[in-house]
């Protein structure tokens, strides 16, 4: 199950970027949203010079799977617990 409808339509990096930012809007707190928006932006900067179409498709598939995992994790746990599990700086 995809985190948001339309994951199956994502085929280009810009589509993935927009899709992941929309997923971030579904996260429960502003802190978690900001953390993952920053992570999405950083990842796009790191991979901006990628020109191999196969590798780009691998990255897209993995990013959607990761977003799915995060969204499913949040559905299963209370917000306070999700915050401590999903934000690295919140871990003890």
Query: Regions with pLDDT < 50 over 5+ consecutive residues?
Result: none
Oligomeric composition of the shown chains:
single chain
The coarse silhouette is globular
The portion of residues assigned to helices is: 55-70%
Number of domains: 1
Number of helical segments with 4 or more residues: 4
Structural class: mainly alpha
Rounded radius of gyration (Å): 14 Å
The rounded distance between the terminal residues' Cα atoms is 31 Å
Average pLDDT level: 84
Organism: Gorilla gorilla gorilla
Family: Belongs to the complex I LYR family. LYRM9 subfamily.
Domain Complex 1 LYR protein: 11-68
Protein name: LYR motif-containing protein 9
List keywords for this structure.
mainly alpha, Complex_I_LYR, about 90 residues, 4 helices, globular, about 0% strand, LYR motif-containing protein 9, about 65% helix
Provide an overview of this structure:
- The protein is an all-alpha fold and 92 residues long.
- The mean pLDDT is 84.
- 67% of the residues lie in helices and 0% in strands.
- It contains four helices and no strands.
Can you describe this structure in just a few lines?
The chain is mainly alpha-helical.
Topology of this structure?
Layout: H1 13-25, H2 30-46, H3 53-76, H4 79-86
Helix pairs in contact: 1-2, 1-3
């Amino acid at each position: 199950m995809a985190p948001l409808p339309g994951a199956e339509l994502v085929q280009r990096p810009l589509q993935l970027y927009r899709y992941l930012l929309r997923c971030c809007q579904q996260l429960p707190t502003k802190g978690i949203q900001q953390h993952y928006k920053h992570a999405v932006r950083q990842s796009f900067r790191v991979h901006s010079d990628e020109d191999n179409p196969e590798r780009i498709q691998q990255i897209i598939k993995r990013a959607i799977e990761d977003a799915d995992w995060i969204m499913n994790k949040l559905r299963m746990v209370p917000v306070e617990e999700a915050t401590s599990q999903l934000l690295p700086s919140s871990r003890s």
